[in-house]
Amino acid sequence: MNYAIEMLNVSKHFPGIKANDDITIQVEKGSVHALLGENGAGKSTLMSVLFGLYQPTSGTIKVNGSTVAISSPNVANKLGIGMVHQHFKLVDCFTVTENIILGNEPKTKFGSIDIKNTSLKIKELSQKYGLDVDPYSKIQDISVGMQQRVEILKMLYKNADILIFDEPTAVLTPQEIIELLKIMENLTNEGKTIILITHKLKEIKAIADKCTVIRRGKVIDTVDVKDTSEKQMAELMVGREVDFKVDKQEQECGDSVLVVNNLQVKNKRGTYAVKDISFDVKAGEILGIAGIDGNGQSELIFALTGLQQASKGSMELKHVDITKFNTKKRYESGLGHVPEDRHKHGLVLDFKLKENFIVHDFKTNQFSKHGILKFKEIDDYANKLIEQFDVRSGNGLESNTRSMSGGNQQKAIIAREIDRSPDLLIVVQPTRGLDVGAIEYIHARIVAERNNGKAVLLVSFELDEILSLSDRIAVMFDGTITGIVDAKDTDELKLGQMMAGKKLEEVC
Amino acid sequence: MKINKRLVVSLISIALGILVGVLILAISGKDVVALFNGLLKGSIGYDIVNGGINLRYFGEFLVSAMPIILTGLAVGFAYRCGMFNIGCEGQVIMGSLASCMVAILVPMPNIVAPIVCILAGGFAGAMWAFVPGILKAKFNISEVVTGIMLNYTALYGANYFLKALPGSTTQRTVEIAANATLGNDFFKAMTNNSRLHFGFIVVIIAVFAYWFIMEKTTFGYSLRATGFNKNAAEYAGIKVNKNIVISIMISGFLAGLAGAIILQGTFGYGRMMVAPENYGFDGIAVALVGGCNAIGTLFAGLLFALLKVTQPLLQTSGIPREIGDIISSSIVFFVAIQYVIEKALLKYKSYKGGKS
Fold first, then answer.
1. Nearest to A371 among B219, B225, B233 (CB)
2. What is the pLDDT of residues A49-99, one digit of tens each?
3. Burial tier of B257 (Cβ tally within 10 Å: 0-12, 13-18, 19+)
4. What is the pLDDT of residue B3?
């Protein structure tokens, strides 16, 4: 067999952790080989070893059959290994060509940078693989999907034969995902080899030939994708049976809990991030807000929760105008908020777990008297939440929050917000970066709130999540709502068009 | 668990700092024993070489520890709320000034006088700290810049007002009212005529109050939340800007107390100063080594005071006095690179774990 990459018995140990434990993968030339695993399973470490960012503790790496020592990313590049990072590394105000040649600029015979010939070369490359990139456009003017293609072009321009894609679809619309998969196919047809790091089974099914499943630093299995179902792969990944379906019954909605009228919010640069938005959320329903990251969702949520002032418009919570309320007063009026960034807003990471449970209510009679904290009540309450919501940590309620896993940190936030039983629960990106088990649990909890007759506003960049949880879906594009639809009357493709800016009426 | 780790790091840093001092002495051919003799004499007054105990040294050691424990607490208090109160120096000076003015100008009955003067010092420090606090909260102006500028304003401004007091010369004011001083004949007699005074009561109250506010109250909780993560505090509905102003004012209050007890206890009169006396800057080092917690700061303050009072003793035994500064700055250096020490500890542990 002809292998482009062989990683044989590779181990990488950090103090106290075996991030990679005797891993062997063999990637066939011209194939798409997927690496599947939960967060923290060791995929990224393995690829960092391959890309020269880490040195393996033991094991051998072979590229095209010969043993190599990859001591730095430069060596990896020379061996024809290129990596498309999850977060692009591009200069916004430069053109595509300028970005691609950055650091290795070809000169004309007069000593100036040879933009013209390079652009031609890039154009050819772009056409060969169906990338359709204009070498002269500036990065700031092109879409995120295009920017990703520029990253791919960068690798191709450097003659990379083996391309590593790190979670490439996280930032793309459904249409862009389809196009990317097509591009990957073109690449392999031209003889390139692709390693795809992902936790999205659907994409593996669509494009990959082989799939290596990694759990806790060890290879569980390498399977032929065409003979394996998504469910089987998911079970290999988590090590037990999984249920994709969210158990959710039809139910009648009640009164509007949140009514938003003509809301306008500015972003930090002073331009409007939210432009004249109106919607409502009813008791007993989940309203999902779909859209690509950066289309005004964050600003909308900040305005709703009082972290930022709206410049125009009004918000009513249970028929009370909360537009002028501060954050605290909004919480007291019945709002709960699971924030998008759990490290920035959701938790004080250097607090003990129990201290994080009382951030909203430490001044109430429940937890303090005359300004002095009641430690026994705080401990009891923390134990109750830890038990009810199955928050796991090394040291129970005394654990340092920073030392907890992402899933358990998120569970702690969910516990805190849901236990206050708010009439309106705002959840933003509740499962980002979590493993399948935690996702299942958090989804069930959100649906339980809806079933209890609470209103839930869900913002997520994962369409699957929006589709499986929401009763109604509002799609945001460029600060406006392009349409609000019933979840059962729509599908990914329709939502995808709206996420790209088409109005509901124009969607076919 | 976490505090233990910090404690270990601080202790290691102190040991390494002293080791640096010892090495420098050894290399330059000086008497290493004299260093430890100096430290022992400076702290409890016992002289191993010549024998005999002189409690005067002990008294003076405490006298110089008191203000820097207070400034250490001051810096730590602001730091726990995410503020770097480098303006401590100026707040000490303003505390001294206010306490001096009240003590000279306002006649008061016996027990009341020292307390009122001390509080006057505290409030003056708090008001001086209010300026960087409010500028930070309202306009997000760095408290470091305003704090440093206000240090100089305080230094020269205070001299002006001290000179204007009745009876002042160009060097000093008159003695403050006798009933406003903190000195005590009993202490004097006990410690062979040292300047030991009642200021230690202020320090003990401050250490206890610091611990109590930080660990036990809702106010301390919200301060710590703000200090650890301003965004999360805001998200939780905590009034971050209010906390910023109040915490730096309390910090200033503590620094002002330091100024007051220096004036009322150590000297008993106001002095014109040509340069800052670095109580505020010592406070930064003390807070750092003490890990910004009450007990840690208390001990760090004692340690730094010890290194300070040992300096003249060293000089008399032929060791350059700068060795004290070298040791204290090495300690600060090692605490500042605590992550290196933690990492080394971790390596050592895994090495030991791997063997057993």
1. B219
2. 999 888 898 999 999 989 999 988 889 989 999 988 877 888 988 999 999
3. buried
4. 54
ipTM value: 0.81
Chain B contact set for A326 (CB, 8 A): 237
B211 touching A (Cβ < 8 Å): no
Q: How far apart are CA A109 and CA A65, in angstroms?
A: 40
Give yes or no for B170 touching A (CB within 8 A). no
Of A156, A170, A19, A187, nearest to A81 by C-alpha is: A156
Chain B: give the shortest CA distance to residue A17, in Å: 11
Take residue B109 and report the two structure tokens written for it: 């009955």
Residue A378 contacts residue A354 (beta carbons within 8 Å): yes
On whether the CB atoms of residues A477 and A270 are closer than 8 A, the answer is no
To probe the interface with B, which of A298, A348, A355, A362 has the most B CB atoms within 10 Å?
Answer: A348
- Asked if residues A195 and A46 have their Cβ atoms less than 8 Å apart, the reply is no
Angle at A447 between CA A443 and CA A448, to 5 degrees: 115
pLDDT of residue B64: 92
The per-residue pLDDT for range A162-203, each reduced to its tens digit, is 999 988 887 777 788 888 999 999 999 989 999 998 878 888
Q: Per-residue confidence at A109, pLDDT binned at 50, 70, 90?
A: confident
Nearest to B346 among A15, A363, A395 (CB): A15
- Provide the number of CB pairs (under 8 Å) joining chain A to chain B: 75
Task: Test B229 with A344 for CB contact under 8 angstroms.
Answer: yes
Could you tell me which residues of chain A have a Cβ less than 8 Å from any Cβ in chain B?
15-16, 305-307, 326-331, 337, 339, 344-351, 355, 358-360, 362-363, 367-368, 371-373, 395, 400
Tokens of A369: 């008297």
What region does A268 belong to: left with phi over 0, alpha with psi -120 to 50, or beta? Answer: alpha
Question: Chain A residues with CB inside 8 Å of B235's CB?
Answer: 305, 307, 327, 337, 339, 345-346, 359
Phi, psi of A76 (to 5 degrees): -60, -45
B352 CA to chain A: closest CA distance, Å?
12
Domains, chain A, with CATH or none = 3-238 (3.40.50.300), 256-506 (3.40.50.300)
Contact A346 B237 (CB under 8 A): no
C-alpha to C-alpha distance for A182 and A203, rounded to whole angstroms: 11
pLDDT tens for residues A300-329?
Answer: 999 999 998 899 999 999 999 999 999 999
Using only the alpha carbons of chain B, give its radius of gyration.
Answer: 21
Residue of A nearest to B347 (CA): A15
Nearest to B21 by CA among B309, B327, B307: B327
Determine how many CB atoms are found less than 10 A away from the CB of residue B198.
16
CA distance A428 to chain B (A): 14
pLDDT of residue B216: 93
For residue A342, give the DSSP letter.
Answer: I
A13 sits in the region (left: phi over 0; alpha: psi -120 to 50; else beta) called beta
C-alpha distances out from residue A233 to A26, A44, A501, B151, Å: 18, 19, 35, 66
DSSP A54-106: S--SEEEEEETTEEE---SHHHHHHTTEEEE-SS----TTSBHHHHHHTTS--
> Which residue in the set A329, A360, A373 is minimally distant from B236, CB to CB?
A360
DSSP codes, A228-289: S-HHHHHHHHHTS----S---------SEEEEEEEEEEE-TTSSEEEEEEEEEEETT-EEEE
Interchain CB contact of B193 with A (< 8 Å): no
